[in-house]
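FW: tagging you since you asked about this chain on Friday. Here's the raw sequence from the shared folder, copied in full. Didn't touch anything.
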Amino acid sequence: MKKTKRFVAILLACLFCVSAFVGCSGDTGTDVDDTTAADTTAVVEDEKWPEVEGTVIYVDVTAEEGGDGTKDNPFKNITEAQAKIREMKAGEGLPKGGITVLLASGEYSVADTVTFTAEDSGTADSPITYMSAKEHRAVFTGGITLNASDFEPITDEEKAKLVDGSAKEAVLKLDLTKYGITTENLGILSAYGTDLKGGSADAGKAELFVNGERMELSRYPNITADDSFIRVGDNDNVTVFTVQDEYKETLKERAKLWQTEDVYISAYLGYAWAHGAYPVETLDVDTLTVTMAQQNYYGLEDGGRLYFFNVFAETDDPGEYYIDRDNCVLYHYPTEDFETASLVISVFDKPFIVGTDLSYVTFSGIYFTATKSDGLVLSGDNIIVDNCKISDIYKNGIVVNGYDITIKNSDIYCLGRSATIVSGGDLDTLTPSNNLIYNNRIYSWGQLNRTHQNAVTIQGCGVTVSHNEIYDAPHQAITWSAPNNIIEYNEVYNVCFETSDCGALYAGRRLDWYGTIIRYNYIHDIGGWETAAAHAIYWDDGLSGQTAYGNVIANTTSYGIHVGGGRDNVIENNLIINPGNAFIYYDDRARGGIYSGNIWEHTVEMAEVLAEKQLLPAWVEKIPGYGDIIPYEQGYSGDVNDLNLSCNPANNIIRNNMLYEMSEGSHEALKFAYQVFNMSTVENNLLFTDLERKQVPNFDNGDCTLADDAEAYKNGFEKIPFDEIGRIKEDK
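HL: got it, structure written out here
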C-alpha cells in the first residue's frame, strides 16, 4: 500500500482499515464489531433490532416502500422517520424520554444531503437519537462499489503510453459508464489547483478507495521511505522553473511519454509549511522547464519540493490510479488483494447531514463514508456525535458551530482536509461554548490539502479537546484561534512528517487568544526528517497568555516547546525528552527592532487588536492584567522596558521543567533571548543525561513514566498521570 512505505505507524493504521461495506472500518480495537458486508444480509431476525427503551422508530434500507416505522413494517429511509417526528411534534408533542430512530444494518446510498432544522430538534426531556442498530453497520455512503471482475486489460496502444514495463501487464481499466457514472459525477480536476494554505472552494473530485485507503493519483516520483519529491532549480519566482540537475536525466526520459495537458504538481514551492497543488500549463521536455497555470502565493524558492501527479504514463506502482474524465475510464494498478478488495469510487458531492439551529439530537454508531464534500455540518446546541465513523472524505470530516456540542468515541480518518472544525461561544462576552472533542481516534487527515488542515481546528472559545489519539498527518494536529480552550490528556504522534517550521499543537500571531491551557498530553515523534524544524508545542509570532503544564514531550526534530516572543505565558512542570534542538526555545521577536524604530509590522497589528478587545468589559474583567497591557504603537515614546508594553516578552513563568537527554548528543536546556530572562520568572529547569534509562526505565517501550526515585521528584517536579493520557475504552 502506498503510505506504508513512509512510516511504520501508517502501516499499523492501514491494518485497522477493514471494510464493512466500502472498505473503511477504521477499527478502534477489540471493542469494534468486524462483521463483513456478507454477514449483514444474513442478520438473524431476533438480532436485527436490539432492545431499546422508550419510543422507537425503525428504519431498514431493505424494507418495502410504504412502511409505518414499526418494527414489523419499518420505514425505508431516514427522511421518512424525520417526517414522522415532525408529525408527532405538531400533534401530541414529543414523548417524555425522547425518540430513538433505529437504523438497521445496510448500505444507505445517498443521493442528497439529509437536512435538519430547528423543526427536527428534541428537548432536554425528550432528546432524539439516530442510532445504528448494530454498531457501524448502518452505512451512509456516497460511493459506488466497483467489481474487480469488471476490470479488463488495457490495449497495446495504452500500454505503449506507460513508462514502466512491468506496469504494462499489470494496469487494468474499467468503463465507469457501466455504473451510470458520468463526467459530471467525476468532477473537474482543474478545480484542484489552488494555493492550499486556507483550503479552497474546490467542489471536489471523484476518488478511488481500496479497502478504505485513499489511492494515489498516478505520480512521479513515487512515494518512498527516503524521499517522495524532486527539487526546484532555477526559477523566475513567479510561475516558471526548472528542476535541479540531479533529476533531469531520469525525468527527461520519462516525460517524453507524458501527456502534459492534464498534469499537476503537488508542491512546497515557497515555504515548507505552505503546500499547493497547481495545474501545469506547459512542460518543456528538452529543458525540463515547467510553467504553472497559476502563481504560487509564496513564490518559488530554489530547493522547493514537488511531485507531478495525474500522469497516466506514471501509473507504475500498486495502488495508483488515473481517470480519463472525458471518457469516464478508470485505470488502476491493482494491489495484491485486488480480487477480494473493496473498491469504491466517490461520486456524492455534498455533506451527508447538514443541521442548522438543531438542538438535543444525537447521531450514534453510524458510519459515513465517501463524499466529495464535507462529512457532517452541524450547528445549534446540545448535539452529540457518538461512536460514529467518518472516513474517505474529500474535504472536512465534521464541522460544528454552537454550544454544548460533543464529538466523542468516534473514528475520523482518511480526510482530504481537516478532521474536525469546532466553533462556538461568544468572543465579546467570553461566554464559553462548552463544546467537547472527547475520546476519538483521528488520523490520516490533510491527505489532499497538506498544510494548515488539522485533526482539531478550534475557532471558538471554551472548547475542550480531551483524551483523543491523534496521528499521521503531514502538518499540524491541533490549532486554535480563540481564547479559553483546554487541550488535555491527548496522545499526538507522527505529525508534521512532511513540513517544517511547524508544531503538533500550534497557534500564533495574536494577543487576544489568551487563556488556552495545554496539560497532560503525550506528544511524541514529531517531524519527518532530522533538519525539519518541527516542534511539539509552538506558540508562534507573539502568541500570548498560554499555559502548558504537565505535558510529556519526546522525540521532536527540533524544539520541545517553541515560543516566538509572546508574553504572559506559563511553561511549567513539563517532561521533555530527546529534542532535536534545545528543549525550550523563547525569543523576543515581537520586541525586535524596538530601538531602531524598525518594529515588526505584526507587533503593531497585534497591538491594534489588543486595543479593540480592551474596550470589551468582559476581557478586562475576566482576564487578569489584560486591561493593564499597553498596546505598542508606531512612534511609542514611553519606557520600552515597561513590563506592560505589549511587545515585551514579559511576565512569563518557565519553571520546574525536567529535561532529559536520553541519546548521544548535547543540546541546550533553554535557548532564550536575554529579555525573556530579564522580564520573566525562569527557574528550576533542570537538564539530566540518562543514557542508561534509569530515570525513565520504559522509555523505549513508549512509557514515559518516571522511576519512583527519579531525580526530577527530588527537585520539586510533580508527578504526571501518564497512564491516564490517551483514549479511554469506555466512555465516562
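FW: The radius of gyration is 27 Å.
HL: agreed, and The CA atoms of residues 142 and 348 lie 5 Å apart.
FW: great, closing this out.
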